[in-house]
Amino acid sequence: MYKYHCLNPIAPVGIERFDENYVRVESPEEADAILVRSASMHEMEFGKDLKAVARAGAGVNNIPLEKCAEKGIVVFNTPGANANGVKELVLAGMLLAARDIIGGINWVQEHEEDGDLAKEAEKAKKAFAGRELDGKKLGVIGLGAIGVRVANTATHLGMDVYGYDPYVSVDAAWQLSRNIHHAKTVDELYKECDYISIHVPALDSTKGMINREAISLMKKGVTILNFARDVLVDSEAIVDGLLSGSVKRYVTDFPTPEIAGVKGAIVIPHLGASTEESEDNCAKMAAKALRDYLENGNISHSVNYPDCNMGSKEEGSRVTILHRNIPNMLGQFTSLLAKENMNITLMTNKSKKAYAYTMIDVDAEISGNVVKRLEDIEGVLKVRVIV
Ligand SMILES: NC(=O)c1ccc[n+]([C@@H]2O[C@H](COP(=O)([O-])OP(=O)(O)OC[C@H]3O[C@@H](n4cnc5c(N)ncnc54)[C@H](O)[C@@H]3O)[C@@H](O)[C@H]2O)c1
Ligand SMILES: O=C(O)[C@H](O)COP(=O)(O)O
To answer: Which domain of life, per UniProt (predicted)?
Structure first.
């Protein structure tokens, strides 16, 4: 029986994927697996049984990835599962920035009691006139699951789209419309574009990337859209940009006291992935990854360990070892099993940066003593036998 805990509400369609071999527990300390959306796990103490964390979503900056890796806890996310939901809200954000739809709706609400509302509206509407997206230049920074979708869809609105991503994956590059201009530097994109939308993860290398210097390179009256993370943007620089008029609009999915209420800011309460479809997709993908890891030891879409798949566990035993990516680990595992006269029927070893994962199928039962000796090997972080 596996125990799981949900740190945030997770869509029922995902939870239903856990069968009678699973029980939901109220306390995270008891859990074998945790499902989470945006709740911060940085201050959490992890229970001794915790084997995996699944982020039902894309961004993993709420999870201490290194600490988890050191404790042999595999962290998964659900790449692309909410990308369409975010893309649609980015498009809505661009339209809200281009036309004063919010100002117009507010005006109607304020005048709803007026007897001659329709006539008054015709007089008032010139205050809310805007511009069209057709023919404007959009720069997309980060061409992953969301950025590619935003870029491609914007071309259908008649926008001239520039994309920048020095680490673009082969898959994403295949999906990108041939009509997107390849910006070789981010400065080129800053100089060209009327709208700039950022879709990169929050990393040390990306935090604060939209700062004073970046804004100084952008066109006067630029609209900046941030549906990725608040920390990517220097909020003081944005507020000054909005007040001076160098930034016309800042559309963000991340409300902070610094930005909420500033004229020209359109602040949304983190709704990018809050659609029925995205929530369902993320929950299903997260539950599937957790089950395959707990039941078979397979890893797919992990952010701190390598993906590794040996199919379903068959006869015999499967031992899985999370360990450091250092020389001679595999040699030590196989010679230990050989000394025990154990026949290896299948084996895989994969690495990702400082960490590695080895899965070994043997045609006999693995004793507690063998597990203990594997655990004692320098560099081994967690050993699990799947029966
Ligand atoms: N508002 C929301 O509800 C919501 C929903 C999903 C994701 N997000 C945020 O959006 C981010 C992107 O999501 P995604 O699903 O597209 O992720 P993704 O991993 O598919 O794409 C991220 C892309 O950014 C690129 N990148 C990394 N560093 C870069 C840099 N310095 N310059 C340019 N490109 C760089 C990567 O190469 C990758 O292609 C997530 O990390 C998350 O923080 C927000
Ligand atoms: O990174 C993500 O997937 C988004 O920011 C969505 O977060 P949420 O699951 O809390 O809506």
So the answer is: Bacteria
Measured in Å, residue 264 CA sits from the centre of ligand 2 at 25
Active site members: 229, 258, 270
> Does ligand 1 come within 6 angstroms of the Cβ of 79?
yes
Distances (CA, A) of 139 to 85, 142, 235: 20, 10, 20
Taking only the tens place, the pLDDT of each residue in 1-30 is 999 999 999 999 999 999 999 999 999 999
- The per-residue pLDDT for range 244-298, each reduced to its tens digit, is 999 999 999 999 999 999 999 999 999 999 999 999 999 999 999 999 999 999 9
Domain 89-267 class, CATH top level: alpha beta
Q: What is the mean pLDDT of the chain?
A: 98
Q: Does domain 1-82+276-305 have CATH number 3.40.50.720?
A: yes
| Ligand 2 pocket member 274 (CB < 6 A) | yes
- Look at the domain 310-387 and name its fold: Alpha-Beta Plaits (3.30.70)
User: Among the atoms of ligand 2, which is closest to the Cα of residue 253?
Assistant: 5
Ligand 2 near 58 CB (within 6 A): yes
Structure tokens at 266: 């359109």
Position 387 scores a pLDDT of 80
- Which ligand is the nearest neighbour of the Cα of 208? 1
Q: Is 41 in the pocket of ligand 1 (CB under 6 A)?
A: no
Instruction: Say if pTM beats, i.e. exceeds, 0.80.
Output: yes
* Same-fold call for 89-267 versus 310-387: no
